[in-house]
Amino acid sequence: MNARPVNVSLPKKASVVIVGGGIQGLCCAFYLTTFGLRDVVVLDAGYWQGGASGRNGTLIRPGFGGPEWTELFKLSCDEWSQLSRKLGENVMFTKRGYSMIAERAETAAMLGRAAGVHRDLGVHSYFVPQADLPHHLPAINHRRVAATLHLPDGGVAPHHAAMKGLRAACERNGVQVFYRTAVTAFERTGGRASAVYAGEHRIDAGSVVIAGGGHNLKLADLAGIRLDGYSMRIEAMALEPIRPLIKPALALIDSLAYFHQTSRGEVVGGTEVPERPRMSLSTDLPVMAATAKVYLEMFPQLAEVRVLRHWAGMIHVSSDFGPLLGEHPDLKDLWVSAGWSYGFAGAPGAGLLLAKAIATGEVDRRMQPFAVDRFDRGKPVAEAGIVLAKN
Amino acid sequence: MPSRSDDRQMVEFHWNGHPLLGRLGEPIAVALRRQGIGVIARSRKLHRPLGQSGSYIAGVLARVDGRPNVRLDLEPVGQGMRVEAQNVWPSARFDLLKAAQLLPAKAIYGGFEHADWTPQGGRGYHLWERLMAHLAGMSPPPLPSLPSEIRPGRRVQYDTVVVGGGPAGRHAANEAAAHGRKVAVVTRGHICGRYAAACGVEQEAIDDRVAVFTGMELFGSYRQGALLVGAPHRYDQGAVAFDTQEIVLATGRRSIPPLVPGSHVPGVMEAQAALVMAHEHGVAPGTAVAVVGSGAQAAIATRLTAFGANIVHVGDVADLTRINGRVHVNSIDVGATVICDAVVHAGPWHRDPNLIFQTQSDGLLQLVSTGASGNLRVAGAAEEADEDVVVPANLSDDVLICPCMDVTAGELLMHIDAGETDPEVLKRLTSCGMGPCQGFPCWDSMIAVLASRTGQHPAEFARPSHRAPRRAITVAQAAGLHDVVGPDR
Ligand SMILES: Cc1cc2nc3c(=O)[nH]c(=O)nc-3n(C[C@H](O)[C@H](O)[C@H](O)COP(=O)(O)OP(=O)(O)OC[C@H]3O[C@@H](n4cnc5c(N)ncnc54)[C@H](O)[C@@H]3O)c2cc1C
User: Fold this and answer.
1) Which of B21, B255, B358, B488 is most buried by its number of CB atoms within 10 A?
2) What is the arithmetic mean of pLDDT over A203-217?
3) Are residues B83 and B164 located together in one domain of the fold?
4) What is the bridge-based pairing of β-strands B331-334 and B336-339?
5) Residue A1 burial (CB < 10 Å; 0-12/13-18/19+)?
6) Same domain? B160 vs B307
7) CATH number of domain containing A122
8) Is pLDDT above 80 for A6?
């Protein structure tokens, strides 16, 4: 296969070595350069865009159900809207709006509480009156909708554009990015992470960041640390392109579905089915069937549109589905950006905060609730506004 | 020309508003061809004319009675049908989008979606996005008045599922049945063995004990091949999930289009598609036909002659340097220029790798073939090794590698020469193979170009992931499988 042998031009030393070149790793690297760091290295075992960052639904929203998630994702969404300018590369983020839809009364009540949180934290959101639904989402099956909470500042960004822009900006700022280069070992000296190995090659590191997506638990094992959570695959699919039918990005909280229509005309998204969590990039039938069923019920006009492609990606989710963000309590200079289920939307915000913490030592208030040791401290973060099957 | 369909009832249908006559039940593409209409579709970005090629599905997609993306090579003509070209604006008769043909191919490298001239955010981007979505979408959504009910699926159990109803598939099915196995044959044709019949090959009758599923695309192989899924071409029928212990792939091989300029132009046809059309409908690929190939060209030409085709050239595909004609083939360059209105290519032959890939690949960083055959067996022509694709030494930048997404050899070479040699990454940078064909034959062409440029062998490159369902199944049919196949706990 064309897996490159360990690259001879790998450096011997770096101020920060980031393990994983998905959107989390690249965002962290980019923001590190904005804090003046230059010798940052990103190592990735797979190919560029081969992780979840190249396989996701690309939905971005600033608001969730609770204050912790909302504060972090509001920051991230703000960063998204400035990202093209900051990178000098077009990430094609489009604020076409993001609607959270409740089909049941209890869920509508949850959205009501979420709207309150949004108001308190300065996230713009409003309920779309049922009478306006035909205008807001003309094709939706109105009878199924109990409430629609709309976030006009949310939207989507094609992952290939985001990943391309990030990589280009990183490299322009001096970050060295290596794909097909797996990290195989971590070195610990005097209670700190001191180096990583890619095969025989050792890279001396000031700090190490684990941002390995679905592979985080394996990396934690290699580093000899404990990380909460489990790995699982999630699947998504694209329909054949048609001219615009659905404008905003959508999360159907009760159907466990999220989707949007891309600027290529494809409706892209997925649902969650309660399967045994597993590590695999292959797909199975139930997700396609379940997603199709949701489309059919909510957008009957899609009935005879054909399914183009169905794929899978892997993520690592924590017990409370929130990210694990910060320095590891058991190993100094080892940082993690892990546990991400909404890690595309959250990447610029998390990258900024993590970079700031690494570069300046200042742990931002907005990342504190997501500290790696929160479960040991009995402080999980409750969040009701997410679309994820509780396995 | 012999034609078994002459006695069929004539019906009137409409093409872009013009009334036309067709024979009831024949594919719309055939009816159009009888009327001299070869351009059915336009490529997504540069509006290059496309037609029935037997290789690229984008060339036969049109809107039929308010339903987008209907395959005209499969959909039968019906009385009063309204068939309309897609990707036109404001109308097919007065299509301003054709102006896109004037753009240089380089302008859309990277796709109009991630081109550098896209505005960055703000109102400019919003307007741009709207325009882009309109262009890329090709056709308005289905009419709300179309049926929207679920098409309930079925789950069936067979010891052996044979994909392909040609001689090898029949033989494998009969043999398994003779051993007392419960066998199903699935074929996309409305009858089994259409290509073999067109070639005049004697085929053994299928054992009565074998269940035959015709008009069905077997598109999915899940759980290492233990669960197969097929969807009928007809919109009103449900999909079928097969639990099985053994799959036999007898799907034959297809010819890869020649890597010369003009290979996407209407009038260029894959040999099987051309022969089947001539045999079943009495429609020759053209009035003056050139046949090129990797060895089978003479036999294919002889067979086409038997159906009344006038063959003007038979030669090695390696000697073909260019196919001329803007909206339809008018000549080819094979050392000399030969006037012709059709080019049939008969090799190099490759098997469609999709189902094998789905069954046998795995991985956590990338899906790659595990090499384990599991419960999968390949029979007949599909068993033979892929032939080398001829990449001309002076490969022209203009050759379309993926006509559906307007990816040219020039665009691929730009990335390859910049050092990007990973097929998965090339796919993401160019969208090559992301259209309705989903990577066959375009990834075969892409990898051939890549191998030739880097001096490696095509087999050294991992293919991009082949995925289901390649537009074989509708949302209503997929939804109909929901209660049939539960999660694998
Ligand atoms: C189908 C699907 C839909 C989704 N939809 C959304 C959505 O709409 N919105 C949203 O915000 N999020 C969504 N997500 C989640 C989101 O994609 C992820 O949370 C996010 O991409 C995680 O980014 P990452 O950089 O942490 O991980 P990844 O992108 O997975 O990157 C991790 C990288 O680590 C590398 N790696 C692994 N092991 C090693 C090693 N030993 N050495 C070096 N490198 C290694 C891998 O090769 C990989 O490239 C979705 C995910 C999936 C799968």
Assistant:
1) B255
2) 98
3) no
4) antiparallel
5) exposed
6) no
7) 3.30.9.10
8) no
CATH number of the domain that B194 lies in?
3.50.50.60
CA B314 from centre of chain: 24
Domain that holds residue B369: 154-254+358-384
Are B189 and B51 in the same domain?
A: no
Considering only the beta carbons, identify the residue of B120, B134, B422 that sits closest to A90: B120
Q: Count A/B contacts: CB-CB distance under 8 Å.
A: 243
Residues B326 and B367 reside in one and the same domain: no
Cβ within 8 Å of A, B 22-51: none
Cα atoms found within 13 Å of the Cα of residue A374, Cβ hemisphere only: 21
* Confidence bin at B226 (pLDDT 50/70/90): very high
* Residue A208 tokens, joined: 């190490």
Token couple for B27 = 């594919």
The tens digit of pLDDT for each residue in B383-396 reads 999 999 999 999 99
What is the Å distance from ligand 1's center to B113 Cα? Answer: 23
Give the Cα separation of B422 and B235 in Å (integer).
38
Q: What is the mean pLDDT of chain B?
A: 93
**What total number of domains does chain B contain?**
3
Q: Are residues B367 and B242 in the same domain?
A: yes
Q: Which residues of A touch B218 (CB under 8 A)?
A: none
The verdict on B61 and B178 lying in the same domain is no
B38 C-alpha to ligand 1 centroid (Å): 45
Among A231, A237, A248, CA closest to A60: A248
Residue B193 tokens read as: 């063995």
CA B67, distance to chain mean position in Å, is: 20
Cis bond before residue B90 (omega within 30° of 0): yes
Cβ(A20) – ligand 1 distance below 6 Å: yes
Closest residue by CA, ligand 1 atom 48: A51
Q: Of A257, A294, A298, whose CA–CA distance to A141 is shortest? A: A298
Mark whether B232 and B262 lie in a shared domain: no
Q: Which residues pair with B23 in a beta bridge?
A: B10
The answer to whether the pTM exceeds 0.80 is yes
Asked if A220 and A73 count as a contact pair (C-beta separation under 8 A), the reply is no
Yes or no: say if B219 and B469 are a contact pair by the CB < 8 Å rule: yes
Q: Which of B212, B253, B248, B218 is nearest to B232 (CA)?
A: B218
What spacing in Å lies between the alpha carbon of A22 and ligand 1's midpoint? 6
- The verdict on residue A225 lying in a domain is no
Q: How many domains does chain A have?
A: 1
